[in-house]
Amino acid sequence: MKRIPIRTVLLALGAAALMPATALAQSSVNIGGMVDVGIYRDGNETWNVGTIQRSYLTFSGTEDLGSGLAAFFNLTTRFDMDTGTLEGNPASGKPFFHGESTVGLKGAFGSVKAGRALDAMWANDWHFDPWYNFNRVASPAWDLWHYNFPSDPQANSGRAEYGRLNNGIFYDSPVVGGFSLHVSGSPEKRPGDSQRPLGGAIKYAAGPITAMVAREKNSAGASDTFVGLKGKIDSLALMGAWDLSKSPGAASKAKAITLGAQYFIGPWTLNAGWGQVDVDGVKAQKTTAAGAVYALSKRTSVYADVARKSYPGDRVNLYGLGVAHTF
Predict the structure, then answer these.
(1) What are the beta bridge partners of residue 302?
(2) Which residues sit opposite 56 in a β-bridge?
(3) 23, part of any domain
(4) What are phi and psi of 127, to 5 degrees?
(5) What's the domain range around 275?
(6) Would you give per-residue pLDDT tens digits along the chain (327 residues)?
(7) pTM of the full structure
(8) Is residue 83 helix, strand or coil?
(9) What is the DSSP letter of 176?
């Protein structure tokens, strides 16, 4: 029998050991998210301990398929920090992966994914609110935008979902000259749907300017048109948005306008916002808000917000003090 040199055996074993590592180096799985909790006074003038912004956990991954093509997935669940339960309550009908559950491909053409995710408008409108449409106490966008427009009227066990689309296909184009195209829709038409949902947004983001125009129709026939503009001068960012949402058959029309400002100074971010929504000619709500965020580190911040919300015949003051950590 021919003897194999020990050096050859060791080299072969080393190569075999490296093969799984090489394969794993072409793919990755990440865990990330945000935990947020605070003390706040809500619109019912009740004090609460709980999530003021959003608390969520995301599992995401990519695999390099070669030739500039990659596969990816996103799974996001949202929860309430004060109880450790899923966001909302059982009556809300929200699924376990309420935030997102998608898989897709990306390359030179952009990215396309399928599943449940924010529609084209909601995935990009946050640029035009000082609180990124992400704060139940102070964000004017939280209450006023898309007033008559649930993205999916049946997404949560038959209940309306404002923001996400079930059974969807989502496309994001590459950025060309600062412009990008975003499209969302579904080929499905479920019992009770009057049509298939479809929406699109064109966004421009280059230098100090961000702008967007979006138009959508949901499966019940409601529609929404959104326009946003944001500009930054040194440490100051100014922004505004206009939104027109119509219920099916235009039975109800809601016109919302919001204005906002951010000022960045060292670890501080100072926010201010104003907005109002007219529903069928009646001023349904007006919001004035201010807040401050102090970054303790790149991942941890403390913040305080105050807002005054006016309704026909009623006014209420809201307050919030919280801490947020991203990971």
Answers:
(1) 294, 323
(2) 34, 78
(3) no
(4) -60, -25
(5) 30-326
(6) 444 454 443 344 344 444 444 444 478 999 999 999 999 999 999 999 999 999 999 999 999 999 999 999 999 999 999 999 998 877 778 999 999 999 999 999 999 999 999 999 999 999 999 999 999 999 999 999 999 999 999 999 989 999 999 999 999 999 999 999 999 999 999 999 999 999 999 999 999 999 999 999 999 999 999 999 999 999 999 999 999 999 999 999 999 999 999 999 999 999 999 999 999 999 999 999 999 999 999 999 999 999 999 999 999 999 999 999 999
(7) 0.89
(8) coil
(9) B
Q: Is residue 257 part of a domain?
A: yes
Whether the Cβ atoms of residue 51 and residue 82 lie closer than 8 Å to each other? yes
Pick from 118, 46, 56: nearest CA to 81: 56
Torsion of CA 45, 48, 53, 55, to 10 degrees: -150
| Structural domain total, the chain | 1
Structure-token pair, residue 45: 């003038």
Q: What is the CATH number of the domain that holds 121?
A: 2.40.160.10
**Helices and strands in the chain: count of H runs, count of E runs:** 2, 19
**C-alpha to C-alpha distance for 180 and 172, rounded to whole angstroms:** 7
Q: Provide the residue type at 77 as one letter.
A: T
d(CA 207, CA 152): 34
Residue 189 CB-half CA count within 13 A = 6
